[in-house]
Amino acid sequence: MSTQDEFAQQVREALNHLYDFARLDHHPLALLYWPEARSNGPSRAQRLHRLLLEAIGSLLPLDGSRGDSRHSRYHALLVARYVEEWPLDRILGEFGCSRRQFFREQQEAVAMLAALLRERFPPPPADDPADPFTAEAQRVLTQRETLDIAEVARGVLPVANTLAQQRGVVLQFDLAPQLPTVAANRTLLRQVLLRALSDLVTQPGTRRVALRLRTSNGEVAAELTNEMGPGEALRQNLTGLDAARRLVELMGGHWQQTEITAEGCTYCFTLPGGEPEQRVLLVIEDNEGVIRAFQRYLGGYGYRVIGAASGQEALRLARELRPTAITLDVMMPGQDGWEILQALKNDPITRHIPVLICSVLVDPQLAHALGAAAYVQKPVTQDALLSALAGLTRPPA
To answer: Domain boundaries in the chain?
Structure first.
């Protein structure tokens, strides 16, 4: 898929969640335009919401007419579909088109909107558009657990101490008693500590490095400092800093500050205390073997998998459970997956739940046009399912 196609798909997904500000705040499009969060002013979600509305409005001719031009029709269609959230039957009646024609025009309208956004509001360039670091970290972070951060820190000590001894650096750990547990991932947390400690230990002229863990307002506060030797000055090539900061933020933490002086450097960050929230995946599938496979795939990854073998049961469970995400097979008996998807998106209670289409039918364009958040072709592997779910849902903060 080209970058242009990926951008259009992101625009479509953002439109599908135009009023879901919690989801928009972490949407890839919002992070693309505004990678750094702001402590004041409009949030990412508010800015993305406003940008999309302004872009839709710019499709209308300057004189405000609503003639038969393609731009005017696409403007009206986007307003009805996404801004005013008309039900599909009303759109078909008002626009005098068949379902097939509507979905084709909707796809063309979104593509035109995406092209307009790229032209008038080009996203900032990225050194690595694919960002494999973040993608891999999000995949690993799907498996969250309750961690004793002091125990993780003690596990890191032998590795960090080996590096410190090779450099003649004194390594000190100061861990407060009875620290709260944190909801994180052991692998990523170890990487944060190792990267930060390694960065400080390997600074030429470093004499001492300390890690301190404290409790602060129910969170765990970490402080890492290095102390330079007499006559030494810190060289500010902190290669591991950015990676450590990104991992902390992906785990729902906050990188508070990096203080750099001639005498040394201090990193400070916090991680939220508590236990990981269990997420619910509703699997709409008439094949019991697939449901059992998904339960095996997600064992230990913080998901409770609930199966639904019919459209009626699926809609009832979706309203009752409000699942984190839904996987949906297209070839269902009685009521096919496209009908179920439309019913989910037409219901105010379930419309904001991300839906992952899992089907042997290769039709991702139709899936996205009907409001699906992602598409995976069957047979679905564990890696494909984990990667898709990581893209649909962010870890609980």
So the answer is: 3-120, 145-272, 279-392
